[in-house]
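Priority: low. Protein: PTB domain-containing engulfment adapter protein 1. Input follows.
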Amino acid sequence: MNRAFSRKKDKTWMHTPEALSKHYIPYNAKFLGSTEVEQPKGTEVVRDAVRKLKFARHIKKSEGQKIPKVELQISIYGVKILEPKTKEVQHNCQLHRISFCADDKTDKRIFTFICKDSESNKHLCYVFDSEKCAEEITLTIGQAFNLAYRKFLESGGKDVETRKQIAGLQKRIQDLETENTELKNRVQDLENQLRITQVSTSPLLHKMSAHEQHASQRCSSSFWRSSDGPSPCLNISSITVTPVNSADSRLSLGLLIPPPSKCGLPKPISERSIPRPHVTF
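Result:
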């Protein structure tokens, strides 16, 4: 399992130089993951990395997790790893940081490359699974490396510095896009929590109000209930108050006589049975 960034002079490359220098070559593959390696190159180095990631992927597969699919965009500037549907850049491996690339001759579906991380300066081995294009992808990366090296010689090294600046700006843009996505997700979570809180508190208030209303009715009904007999009924809606000077006024008797009871209340005392007080001078 070994293929470096070189190609015999008697054989031609697969793509035109313009396709890799002005555009990119896309491929679809399954991404097994990346792992840190001790050396920037070597057959045994990538073989150990492949074995390690295959084992980890086997465990995840037994748990029901599928191998994620990615899109590779290969150009003279590097290899981008994107999510196929959203086109979100997951990894941007600059070409001058890639030190080794190989496809597995024992397992023709597997290909790898080693890239030095721009932040941690650690060497990471990226492992992919492609059913039909593993060797072709490896050769395409080798062709991109060959074209980039020629361009470096023609420009006297100035082009490399320009690409580094561009790569730095691209990395900054990627970080900002990631941060923006995280903020959007956080705002969405807060909106969902607020919506759940509103839905959960509204029925509670309604239930409390109904309970209070029921308690009030029980309190008012028990206020007039007698413990010795049937519940009396007090009807005060027919009480009439007449002026003092009216002929029908009974205020001179010193009494306010309620209307006749309809529910078994005792009848009012007749006015003849009430003795009138006598005043003696």
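Residues 17-155 form a domain with the PH-domain like fold (CATH 2.30.29.30). The radius of gyration is 46 Å.
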